[in-house]
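Form 12-C: Joint structure prediction
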Amino acid sequence: MNHHNHSWTIESKSSLFDLKLNEVWAYRDLLWLLVRRDFVSFYKQTILGPLWFFIQPIFTTIIFTFIFGNLAGISTDGLPKPLFYLAGITAWNYFADCLTKTSTVFRDNAAIFGKVYFPRLIMPLSIVISCLVRFGIQMILFVLALSYYYFTGASFQVTWAIALFPLLILLMALLGLGSGMIISAMTTKYRDLAFLVTFGVQLLMYATTVIYPLSEAINKYPKYAWIIEYNPMTPIIETFRYGFLGEGSFSWVSLAYASGVVLILLVFGIVIFNKVERNFVDTV
Amino acid sequence: MPTAIKVENLSKAYQLGQIGTGTISRDLERWYANIRGKEDPFLKVGESNNQNTKSESNIVWSLKDINFEIEQGDAVGIIGRNGAGKSTLLKILSRVTAPTTGKISGRGRIASLLEVGTGFHPELSGRENIFLNGAILGMRKKEIQRKLEEIVNFAGIERYLDTPVKRYSSGMYVRLAFAVAAHLESEILIVDEVLAVGDAEFQKKCLGKMSDVSKGEGRTVLFVSHNMDAILKLCGTGILLHNGNILSKGNIANVCDQYMTQGIARFITHKVTKYVLSGELYLNYFSVNKSIYSQFEDIEFELELESSSRNKFDCIAIIIYDEQESRVSVLDLRTNQLLEESKISQKIRINGTCNSIGLLPGFYKMGLALGSEICTGDYLDIVGFEVKKNSKSNPSFIEFPKNVIGNLAIDFNFKTVYA
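Section 2 - Result
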């Protein structure tokens, strides 16, 4: 009951870096209830429920295997093709989900933001955690595929880098969160940015090593491969593949680089999000 | 009594139109014009404004240097016509938006019922929604658990607790939503117009609950409503806002009296000129031909809209609503020609007639519902007029009282045959 009697002030200016993390903590129950709401409402609205989480990666994997693997004949570093693509898709989906859903957070929640105050950061955080549920389910699919190929004797091996998996999840979540928050803040001013996001994410996938290995890109386009290398998602997916499948270009330097980019985008994202949040209601 | 809320020099400015132009392509165009030293293609210059704006800028002060103090346990009614700044004040107090200048300090948790049912999800059950809604309002899970039975009883939904709320009747929905908010343990409760919903019995229950909250539990209540009866019943003190200033404060009966008698409720006239709708769209004029009509008279209206740049319209309509802010009718002014012409013409002139209006006696206001490239929205409280009782009515009978005559006056003839 202590926090009930605290005194508060509302002022016109707030510090740029006052992230109100103590408030976010005070509202932690809301965070979990929102995650639960997302999951339950998705589950209740569909006949197949969480099975939908499986269908999308399975079909995408099949199509990628046919088109990019067989038809175009792009190398998969000697790994079984479906396994190679599934690894890329699973990781990419998580990042892309976090990014696209966070990027519409102001628009989607305009009604609720206009009526009740709670730390706004709760919303994007709940999105990233909700997506984690879906990612977890898709990881089960990936592990099932992994064990299938293991018992049929395909050539791949799990390496020590699998220990980096939690770090990879964190990096993907924070990268999606940070860039999503930047975009969401900008879409309150520029509505046309919203259209760019879905399209941009799709394009970005081709600049990430989802359907080809980095080694292949460096091989074929040595001049332009830097675009792919500077993309912070590339080291994350490469490490993911290296950990689970034993192939991929892993280096501490590129992983550190990705972490650096993530950190910068995250800090920038939170600051701009907090700035927009204060007066966002006036512009809708 | 100690102070619960102290408001010092509080102001809130809104920018008319947008700070940016809304799209990147336009901002780029503006930027390109700027570097070539040309003038801003989207800036409207040389306009004069009415009371809505200061003439030299597009800034509207929704609240101007407000100062007041509220003591703990007070029930305060906030009164004023649309656009007086009531909602802005409540929004700032409930931290939905930030003030432009000034400071508010206070003690204790604030719960706001700006609109009940915020965050309800139709697919979730009543129980799940109680928890979610409670958490949005700032309750911890344990706290909601403790209050669950009380909330469910108050709302009267015991049997449907595990049914998705999409199957609830609208009455049940509102009852549940109000129940959650009313049971939040807070020192300060902000209520905006909730009594407009629910049936009479439930409204009474809400008023009772709010009265318990302020009188019985010693919590502070801020109440905004157009319902003077409710305000008089519930509140001890009042604050009268007008055009962003405090006109009077103190004993609720005096404040209400001032609001009613000084005609502040009916502040708008039947004619406006140079009325700014947004930074890039304004009304050169908008008027109805009289300020007082008798029933079944014709109303002639005329208006001219001007846009600062080419502005394709997809909707123009006049909204008519009464003093209680409830909508009476909409005059749909869309025509194919209008939509075509608005692509080329920057000025649109419309005049027309409402034939033999069937409005009940009272005060009415007109606003515009606009949809265009530059701006979209409802612009209320532009012009107003009064309707007086038809002189034809038989003076030898006492009139039916207001609460039984319904919503519509009908021009009718009849014969009676006696056999």
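Section 3 - Comments
DSSP finds 13 helices and one strand in chain A. Residues 49 and 250 of chain A are 37 Å apart (CA to CA).
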